[in-house]
From TrEMBL:
<feature type="domain" description="Septum formation inhibitor MinC C-terminal">
    <location>
        <begin position="170"/>
        <end position="266"/>
    </location>
</feature>
<keyword id="KW-0131">Cell cycle</keyword>
<feature type="region of interest" description="Disordered">
    <location>
        <begin position="91"/>
        <end position="173"/>
    </location>
</feature>
<dbReference type="GO" id="GO:1901891">
    <property type="term" value="P:regulation of cell septum assembly"/>
</dbReference>
<dbReference type="InterPro" id="IPR036145">
    <property type="entry name" value="MinC_C_sf"/>
</dbReference>
<dbReference type="Pfam" id="PF05209">
    <property type="entry name" value="MinC_N"/>
</dbReference>
<feature type="compositionally biased region" description="Low complexity">
    <location>
        <begin position="133"/>
        <end position="148"/>
    </location>
</feature>
<dbReference type="InterPro" id="IPR013033">
    <property type="entry name" value="MinC"/>
</dbReference>
<feature type="compositionally biased region" description="Polar residues">
    <location>
        <begin position="155"/>
        <end position="173"/>
    </location>
</feature>
<dbReference type="GO" id="GO:0051302">
    <property type="term" value="P:regulation of cell division"/>
</dbReference>
<dbReference type="GO" id="GO:0000902">
    <property type="term" value="P:cell morphogenesis"/>
</dbReference>
<comment type="subunit">
    <text>Interacts with MinD and FtsZ.</text>
</comment>
<keyword id="KW-0717">Septation</keyword>
<dbReference type="InterPro" id="IPR005526">
    <property type="entry name" value="Septum_form_inhib_MinC_C"/>
</dbReference>
<dbReference type="Pfam" id="PF03775">
    <property type="entry name" value="MinC_C"/>
</dbReference>
<comment type="function">
    <text>Cell division inhibitor that blocks the formation of polar Z ring septums. Rapidly oscillates between the poles of the cell to destabilize FtsZ filaments that have formed before they mature into polar Z rings. Prevents FtsZ polymerization.</text>
</comment>
<dbReference type="GO" id="GO:0000917">
    <property type="term" value="P:division septum assembly"/>
</dbReference>
C-alpha cells in the first residue's frame, strides 16, 4: 500500500474583504468576529497592498486558513507564495477562438496513438521500471475527486465529433481574463497562458510557453488526454475532470517542462520531461 492518498473536494469558504493594511487592526476585528470559531477557510480580497506573507502567517495562528486571493493587488505576492488566484466579481472570461485549426488523424488512429502513449508513460518512480529509457524520469502523483468538466461548452458535442476531429493552434499569448476553448481535438498554445487565463480542451493540451493559468485537458472525460507544458506553474490543472490546485502540485514540477496524465488508481501523474 502506498504511504498516502491525496483526495480533493469542493469546499465552502468565506471571503475576507480587507479595507486596510494595518495587520493589528485586522487581527483585532477578526478576534471579535470569529470568537470560538476555528479552521475557517477564506479567500482574501484586499483593496490595498500589504505584506501577504505576514498576513497569511497571522491568519494561520488565529485558526483562519487562507487558500487564495481574489485577483488584484495581492496577485503577484500570491503567485510567489503559491496561493490560488480567483477571478474578481463581475469579471467575465473573454472567450476567444484559436488562431488556426487543422484536420487531425481520424478518431480510430487517434485512439491507437493515445493507447501507445499510455503504455509508454507508465510510472517510472522505482528503479528498473523503465529499462528502455536512458534515464528514469521523475514523477509525482496527486489524486483529486472527480468533478464536472471545467467550463467547456459541450453543446453539439456529438455533431462536431461526427464532422471529424480537428486540432487547433493558438499562436498568441492568452492574457488574464481570456478563455480559450476547443472541442474535438488537441489544443496547441504557442504563446503561453498568463495567470487569470484558461485553456480548455476535451483532448490533449500543449503549452509551448509559460502555463500559469487554468490548464484543462480531457474536459468531457477523456482519460487518455494529457497536458504538455514547457514551463509549468498553473493555478489549476485538470485532466478528465480530476483537478489539482497550485498548492498541491509537487514543488519540483514548478517552472519545469512537465507532462500531466491521468491514472484511475493514482489520479493525476506529474512527470518531468527531459
Amino acid at each position: 500500500m502506498k504511504p498516502i492518498t491525496l483526495f480533493g473536494k469542493m469546499l465552502s469558504f468565506s471571503r475576507l474583504k480587507l479595507h486596510t493594511d494595518d495587520l493589528t487592526a485586522i487581527q483585532d476585528e477578526l478576534s471579535v468576529l470569529l470568537k470560538d470559531n476555528t479552521s475557517v477557510p477564506v479567500v482574501l480580497d484586499s483593496e490595498c497592498k500589504l505584506d501577504l506573507s505576514a498576513l497569511v502567517e497571522m491568519l494561520w495562528q488565529m485558526g483562519v486558513q487562507p487558500i487564495g486571493v481574489v485577483d488584484g493587488v495581492l496577485s503577484e505576492q500570491a503567485n510567489a507564495l503559491r496561493l490560488a488566484t480567483f477571478p474578481a466579481d463581475g469579471k467575465r472570461m473573454e472567450r476567444i477562438k484559436p488562431t488556426d485549426s487543422r484536420p487531425a488523424p481520424r478518431k480510430a488512429d487517434n485512439t491507437n496513438a493515445n493507447n501507445a502513449q499510455s503504455s509508454e508513460a507508465k510510472p517510472s518512480g522505482q528503479a528498473g521500471e523503465s529499462a528502455n529509457q536512458p534515464t528514469a524520469q521523475k514523477e509525482a502523483t496527486a489524486t483529486q475527486t472527480q468533478t464536472a468538466p471545467l467550463g467547456l461548452d459541450t453543446a453539439d458535442n456529438t455533431s462536431k465529433q461526427e464532422q471529424g476531429v480537428t486540432s487547433s493552434v493558438h499562436s498568441q499569448m492568452l492574457r488574464s481574463g481570456q478563455s480559450l476553448q476547443h472541442l474535438g481535438g488537441d489544443l496547441i498554445v504557442i504563446g503561453g497562458v498568463n495567470k487569470g487565463a484558461e485553456a480548455i480542451t476535451d483532448n490533449s493540451l500543449h503549452i509551448y510557453g509559460h502555463g500559469q493559468g487554468r490548464l484543462v485537458a480531457g474536459a468531457t472525460g477523456d482519460k487518455h488526454a494529457r497536458i504538455f507544458c514547457q514551463k509549468f506553474n498553473p493555478t489549476l490543472v485538470s485532466v478528465a475532470g480530476t483537478y489539482c490546485l497550485s498548492d498541491a502540485i509537487p514543488p519540483e514540477m514548478i517552472d519545469k517542462a512537465v507532462q500531466v496524465s491521468y491514472d484511475e488508481d493514482k489520479g493525476l501523474i506529474f512527470t518531468l520531461m527531459a
